[in-house]
Amino acid sequence: MLKCHPVLFSTYHIPRRSRNPSLAVLCTILVTSTALLSTILSQNENNSPPAKSTNTPLPSTQQNPLPAPPPITTKKGLLARLGTQPDWSRLDDYQSSITRTEFQRLLQHNYLQNDQSADLLIEVLDDRARILKQSNHPAAGYYDLLFLPATTDPAKLPPEVPRYWTPAWKLRAPLQRSKPLSDLHIVIDPGHIGGDFAQVEERWYRIGKNTLPITEGDMTLKVAKIMRNNLTALGARVTLTRTEAQPVTSLRSKDLTTEARKWLTRLPGSRKPSSYKLQHTAQRLFYLSSEIRTRAKLINQQLKPDLVVCLHFNAEAWGNPKKPDFVEKNHNHILINGCYSQNEIKEDDERLELLLRLLQRTYYYELEMASEVANAMSRSTGLPPYTYTGDNAKSVNDNPYIWTRNLLANRIYLCPVVFLEPYVMNNRQVHARVQSGDYPGIQKIEKKYRLNIYQEYADSVTTGLVNYFKKHRN
């Protein structure tokens, strides 16, 4: 039997112009009926048995189900070895900081291997560059980098582009003529590791009994320590990325086995790698990728220098690595960042790193600095220039020693980088000079009196840097 409960009626205001007896009665009946119906439905609901499950949908939902929202699809982008997903907002500070003409000239002249390298990846429009965020997933969209109008009023130019390094022309004149490198912070990066790691990183060989092994990582560290003394005496603040034959990274090959397997099977249809291939790839991830990326983190986040000098020695192929032999060639060349292939630009993190270097205009500073160093080294060492015959490097000016090439170190160290490759380690004369050690003064080496090879290397680079900053700082 239906129980009756008192019903509270809301008071409704009827506008003055609508007040008449019939309308008032009609509104009262409507309100009363609505309230009474609500009470009845509430009682029926309270007297009904409890539902078996709180997840039971309402009948109306069963009859007319709502369409499910589309699934959010994410796809991992293409990245370089041990690379991280790029943060495109890092380009926000460079909006309207470069003209279309300069952007396109730098891109084509230096950073692209050929005119098609950036096709469908970086599109140059009239007022902006449209950059694909994820090369294997175009649905992820584009980043629009606005250009600075060519007719911009000079009084309204944007502020200086963000850099953690100071260009030479912004340095004040040195207070002492004997300290031409004052106010400069220079990082020296001794290439490779050396020591117990020399054979693992394939930078080791020995010819003949009772001879010193040739280990590039140990040799670059000797040069770095001499250079540190030179540059410090000339007023610079100098930091080495390593001071001993030990890795900077805390990871080792065994820690990178999983990453090696992912890298080897990243492409559809990839076969399961052999244990040898897996181990070899893990080793390369250790001494090439993890080691250099750890140094980059140190440089970019803590040291923040004005330039980095990467020290290396070169080598020529000698056939069977277990039976090395001498080669006749001996030469020198210097690398700056550039010449990205299409496959490199397809990797999303590399595409962002290219643009950061372009927008900071590191090319101009690297080219001038490398040219001064090349000229000084040519006079000191007498080495001829090396010539690339493949497409992984290209010449950008009339200096035969200078080449642009995309290497991990000269790409992710976000300041001007001069990457040096003098001397062929498996050349007979170079081998003899290494055997002679770091003797003081000069010594006769194959009918010619010379400084030891480490001092000659360090002194010639120092001379080139001094010549550059004397010309370009205030």
SSE topology sketch:
Blueprint: H1 21-47, H2 59-63, H3 100-111, E1 122-124, E2 128-132, E3 142-146, E4 185-190, E5 204-205, E6 214-215, H4 216-233, E7 237-240, H5 257-264, H6 275-303, E8 307-311, E9 332-336, H7 342-346, H8 348-360, H9 362-381, E10 402-404, H10 408-412, E11 417-422, H11 428-436, E12 442-445, E13 448-451, H12 453-472
Parallel strand pairs: 4-7, 4-8, 8-11, 9-10
Antiparallel strand pairs: 1-2, 2-3, 5-6, 9-11, 12-13
Helix pairs in contact: 4-12, 5-6, 9-12
CATH architectural label of the largest domain: 3-Layer(aba) Sandwich
The domain tally reads 2
| Sheet with most strands: strand arrangement | 7-4-8-11-9-10
Number of strands: 13
Percentage of residues in helical conformation: 25-40%
Order of helices and strands: HHHEEEEEEHEHHEEHHHEHEHEEH
Shape: globular
- The CATH superfamily name of the largest domain is Zn-dependent exopeptidases
CA distance, first residue to last residue? 101 Å
Largest sheet: 6 strands, mixed
Poorly predicted regions are 1-63
What is the CATH topology assignment of the largest domain?
Answer: Aminopeptidase
Computed over alpha carbons, the radius of gyration is 34 Å
